[in-house]
């Protein structure tokens, strides 16, 4: 079956954060929405069907994690990422950010130091702050090849005294897929300083060829005993409105401690749709994902080509995973509020302000290209017209 990613869906009026939440975030509604990280494509038919079957059963009662759910995750993680995990190592999570918050509450104390690597998905530091832990910012760098990299000397200096590293693997907003060498160096430093790692791998299934995702926990024996890995079908199969995440903890003692913490408030319980929707996505969604990734790659290539030909003053950090493009707009030399004004009020586009991901994001914007090509094309034309009018 060939899936139609060109179909234009009207998501306004569906209480969508991305579309109906624009007014509150940007003060206007007449924008093309390219901010929140979900896609303007239909969720795959296999997932919709699984939910419909639940509905048709007619009772929305309490639901157990099924064998199909465990087996689908085990098979998926093995075939996609060559990582062998066992059923007892998997814990349902009502969301990745919630999972990170639970893990912080379980494994750290108030005022403990927690390291994040900005620019990074903002809840990493917001949740840490709101839970009264101290955030240690260890910034990433952009090298001459326009690739986001780690300065390992600085990484080691910064991590000293930290209890936890929250790692974004692959990275959001840059789309960097960390290599085995980079992950191993991070692991060695974490081991030396006895730092527990929460590895958020929500974007991993959207890794684009030829890049290869490596789960942090799979790097070596030490990482397998000192990592909580957070995964989900939510980004991959465009189903983040369903609570479908999970955490893999291979170390028995860590898992026991986390389980006990979660059970005290029944935090790990899924809902009537989560297990079957996830099982369907992972068991039947591979072909859909294959076609999606080809479509996303075309959108990324198209954006690169458009910018090169029409807006050479904007530099894009080419994502190695997922559908988010980090745009370097520093050559425009605009203060951040004017840059945002240019995108929102002149180009009529809703993108994420780069500073949302940390102060390193000054001069950057994040563009979501998980949309039909025609919409992307229109958005880039609007951007071109706004920039040409101003400069
Ligand atoms: C790196 C990262 N983690 C987590 C999330 C959100 O996950 P959830 O909705 O399950 O909390 C996102 C969404 O954009 C993300 O990019």
How would you characterize the overall build of this protein?
The protein has 391 residues and is α/β, with parallel strands linked by helices. 41% of the residues lie in helices and 14% in strands. It has helices at 17-20, 22-26, 45-57, 67-81, 96-107, 123-130, 152-159, 180-192, 221-225, 252-263, 274-284, 286-310, 336-346, 373-390; strands at residues 32-33, 90-93, 113-116, 134-137, 141-142, 148-149, 164-168, 196-200, 227-231, 245-248, 315-317, 324-328, 349-350, 352-353, 364-368. Strands 2-10-9-8-7-3-4 form a seven-stranded mixed β-sheet. A four-stranded antiparallel β-sheet has the order 11-12-15-14, with helices on one face. A two-stranded parallel sheet has the order 1-13. Helix 9 links the parallel strand 8 and strand 9 (227-231). The chain binds pyridoxal-5'-phosphate. Pyridoxal-5'-phosphate binds next to helix 5.
Question: Roughly what fraction of the amino acids lie in strands?
Answer: 5-15%
CATH superfamily of the largest domain: Type I PLP-dependent aspartate aminotransferase-like (Major domain)
Query: What's the pLDDT, averaged over the residues?
Result: 98
Poorly predicted residue ranges: none
Strands, total number: 15
